[in-house]
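Shipment paperwork, digital attachment
Item: protein structure file
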Amino acid sequence: MTDLSSATIAELGQALRAGRVTARSLLDQALANRSEALGAYKLWMPDHAARAADLADAAFAQGLDFGPLQGLPVSVKDLFGLSGTPTHAGSPRPLPASWEAEGPVVAAVRNGLAVVTGKTHTVEFAFGGVGSNPHWGTPRNPWGGNAHRAPGGSSAGAGVSLLEGTAVVALGSDTAGSVRVPASFTGTVGLKTSYGRWSLQGIVPLSPSLDTAGVLTRSVADAALAFAAIDPVCRTPPEPADPARLRLGVIESLFEDCGPGVAETVRAALAELEDRGATVESFDLPEMADARAIFAEGGLAVPEFVAFIENELPDFKATLDPNVRSRFEAFGTLTSTEYMGRKMRIARAAAAANARLADIDAIVGPTTPITAPLLQHAAEGEGYRTHNMAALRNTMPGNLLELCGLTIPAGLDGSGMPVGLQLLAPRGMDERVLSIGLAVEGVIGPASRRLGTPPGI
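Attachment content:
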């Protein structure tokens, strides 16, 4: 039997097209794999998924092929509109019905006859990197075993849905790291597309100047196939780069103040790449410090989020998660001059950074300086603020500097928690960052071999 929990997208596709398995039988596996204890989903949709699986099987029976996701289970972050289903965006009540409208990203998945299994939990309005949500509960990171460790945010249920075997692709969004942080924390692959590459229509906004859509998968090879299935331009999955021809720039500040085993695990992976001929060298990107300074002031996300709530959903302000409300109140007052000043500073830094990166293939470093913390230490108060800032420290420059990014599982730290290796490349170089990621995965191996199986599965 083809095992949904371990097979790649390519292997599942081959089995479907050869008639060795059906979309309905894969869905049956997904239904059996679902763990209510892990709590990945805000909305589980077995009946909807069954109809989609039957449609995919009917198309296969007629010799109709709609792409690599046909018949495969996909989870959708509860920030994306999905026709006929409520969108909560992590809030205690549904948003107006207009937010159920599907945008081009979901449409691409649906038109490819993928099987949407449900909507996964998100931090309220995607505003946080830990993954916590006091309204609906926080998904459990399977790597924590019996301990409740954070899943990463804001796409909190996305990585969990992959590990439990209810999806092979998880749709997420990334404003400061909301795809890459949960991927890093759960030992999965996370792709942050370039700003503007994928439409934001049909996705509840946090910061329209920084928001991007992306995917989480169990391998880079799966991410490349999912990217080609969804992207409006790319139709052929990128090929692996030659490891011996890679030039990777190490930003030393990304390795500073890391938790035990994080920097060491990433450097060990980089050493394996060097053994295969890759050039790994120190690289200076002063604009990263500029991005951090602007982020510490509230960046663009806080004022744009405040404007969205005040103008579009004022009734939701009273029930905001305290972790969200605290930033709303602390940074919400900003003059138009200050806001435009930040936008200009960010634009200058992004232009300079993208130009500087022409000298190398990608920046490399730890995706997050910490691994998934125990939720009891990171759910509220100062513990939350400390862990949230740490979780986003290395990922948020990718958004402010308009870069595309990819996180790849590099190994486990001393506590047995996944460590991510992040690649950042210039805006518009999404195919390049995937090609580099494929090369890295070819050298260090996929997560299934590098990390093993989570104890909570």
